[in-house]
Specification:
Layout: H1 3-28, H2 34-40, H3 44-70
Helix pairs in contact: 1-3, 2-3
Length: 100
């Protein structure tokens, strides 16, 4: 299996685990009465499942994005995107066409 696919699967699973912990904490602290709503309604299990799935998609995407951005290496040894003193302002003449 290619390294990038292995990286994607690993960080997607980490993201879904974080989402599961997040939703469990939401239910544990009964934020906005979610635990009561899940227990009191007939289709509450579906709401809980969808909450885990949608948060899992968001958390895994963020986790994979962080993992990919952390892989970047500076080849020139520069300061992470800070510009040096090389820029010199150059005046550009602008002509007004309405005046002829």
């Amino acid at each position: 299996m290619p390294d990038l696919v292995r990286l994607y699967i690993r960080h997607t699973l980490i993201g879904f685990a974080a989402a599961l912990v997040f939703v469990a904490l939401l239910f544990w602290f009964d934020v906005a009465g979610l635990w009561h709503l899940v227990n009191a309604t007939e289709g509450g299990w579906l709401a809980a499942f969808l909450l885990v799935m949608f948060n899992g998609i968001v958390f895994s995407g963020a986790q994979f994005g962080i993992a990919v951005m952390a892989m970047a290496e500076r080849s020139d040894g520069g300061d992470a995107g800070l510009r040096g003193g090389d820029a010199v302002p150059v005046p550009i003449p602008v002509h007004d066409r309405r005046r002829g």
